[in-house]
């Protein structure tokens, strides 16, 4: 779910509609996706940083309006667009349609979600002035009855405020529905003005998402968007159009939450969601922020506010990990592995109370008695490191689908460590996002059989279990993959910082047991944002899961490096 909060002084009521009249909108975005609120089917989490009601109370206390975007699909470059992966246990699943397997799950979730927010509507004295019906459905358009279903799901559970839709390009005509105000999403002025002409006359005109930047994917460049942004905003303001900046504040795909795209080629998003937003990933005001602030002040004919000071960032002492434990030694700490004659994809593994594995890695072990050509048949999702008797011999992914296994006599252990790099969050391939090994793997012409499967979700409880393990001094030639252990000592008040992993190749960083996110030396991202609330005074445990090549040190720097830039 995406929540947009806007200042009340910029809003007035017109009949039954709530129109953002000044079009100068200051807001905060907060995603509250279904996959985090119902991580296992029938198990809900609305606590701590997922406390939606606390957020709505805070918005009300700060005199903000809220536009609620409850999904069930949110996109937002988030894993599976915010839909929970356990939906894919159903082999016939048709996401974002009126297929009963999907609507039954949505109904159960909305039965829990909507009562939590209904009392925060404007008519009840709360901050919610409008609610969005799904998200950009016109670009999907798989079921003509679906938008009506979602609309009724909201109305029947007590939503009475203005309903809205949002879409872009050709999806504007396909994604709207009677009874909901259509709004548009775009970046470049020409396309935006064209979309505005398609809106019905006599209705409020609103840009739900004016894309102030863009996201990045591994192996690409860091996208920036500067040219023409102020002219576009000014042109919209002059037309009396209301604007939400998406994103106004950049963010972070902590843990394994990043999404991916697949329009013929699979590409996964990086951990940073800085987005080249006016407020950076770490909350710093950028040149873009000050430019927009100056523009807005001209329309208000007054200074908006004093320029805020940048928040302090710390450059902590570099640490040198001295202990580690190979993955192969960690396996005995796991619950009993799963035995299966054929591979089982992540989502259908019999774990998590019948909800399967959602994120992380899965290790598939079997025994071979010969060499030959290992063929993935495109059944590796998304990347597998292949081992023979614990020695890495290469990788299988979407591009590399064959790998030669050297001949040898006797039985040998063949292992495939398969990484879920993130599920597609937008487009027609949502139903095809099962991860792990999704079918047979062949050695020459014979399918491999007799698997022992280890789910490696790398939850906090798993990382914390290392305290019971005997860690080893790091040798000159470590065994990979492995977990490398270090301690960051913070003797002052904790401040934001950025982790730089020079010399490390690819893996995941954990701070005090929590999954900070992925890193990969192919970039563009070269540092990981570590916010102050993740750091504690005193000792902080830093664990790095490295797949292939370990560096000697871990640096903590006071500025980000998001890689070589590319103009959108």
Keywords:
568 residues, alpha+beta, TIM Barrel, Jelly Rolls, 8-stranded mixed sheet, 6-stranded antiparallel sheet, 37 strands
Characterization of this structure:
By secondary structure, this protein is of the alpha+beta class. The chain has 3 domains: 2-211, Glycosidases (TIM Barrel), CATH 3.20.20; 327-456, Galactose-binding domain-like (Jelly Rolls), CATH 2.60.120; 460-567, Sandwich (Jelly Rolls). A hairpin with a 3-residue loop joins strand 13 (260-262) and strand 14 (266-268).
Question: What's the topology here?
Answer:
Elements: E1 2-7, E2 11-14, E3 17-20, E4 27-31, H1 34-37, H2 52-61, E5 64-69, H3 100-118, E6 128-132, H4 146-155, E7 162-167, H5 171-175, E8 181-186, H6 189-197, E9 206-211, E10 222-224, H7 229-238, E11 242-246, E12 251-252, E13 260-262, E14 266-268, E15 272-273, H8 287-300, E16 323-326, H9 327-330, E17 338-340, E18 361-368, E19 372-375, E20 380-381, E21 383-388, E22 391-396, E23 402-405, E24 412-419, E25 436-437, E26 442-443, E27 446-447, E28 451-456, H10 460-464, E29 472-473, E30 482-490, E31 497-500, E32 506-511, E33 514-520, E34 527-530, E35 538-546, E36 555-557, E37 565-567
Parallel strand pairs: 5-6, 6-7, 7-8, 8-9, 9-11, 10-37
Antiparallel strand pairs: 1-4, 1-5, 2-3, 12-15, 13-14, 16-29, 16-30, 17-28, 18-24, 18-28, 19-23, 19-26, 20-25, 21-22, 21-24, 26-27, 30-35, 31-34, 31-36, 32-33, 32-35
